[in-house]
Amino acid sequence: AEGVFRQVSELTLEQLRNNRETLVNVLSTMRHDPLVEWSKRNAKEDTTGERDSQEADKEIEKIELKLQGVMQLRGPTPLSVQAQVQQLINDATDLQNLG
Fold first, then answer.
1. Domains of the chain, residue spans
2. Can you give the residue ranges of the FATC domain (predicted)?
3. How far apart, in whole angstroms, are the C-alpha atoms of residue 87 and residue 85?
């Protein structure tokens, strides 16, 4: 089962990476949508929308880095598709993350 899961995960991640620019553009347009809440905080905290905009920019940047294979705590060197899928599987099955 892991073989099929890994293969599908690698193919999916490869397609996401190939379409990274399009995905980021879609997310960027959502940045201006007042119905999209980019943080877990109460939306009433900041009526100017400036904080929402900054948080949206940070979230989009994180997503773009992940689509490039840059894992947050692993350093600036991008991982291959296969290595990133392996790291995601490791993180998802790590007992410390599950507890």
1. 2-98
2. 77-99
3. 5
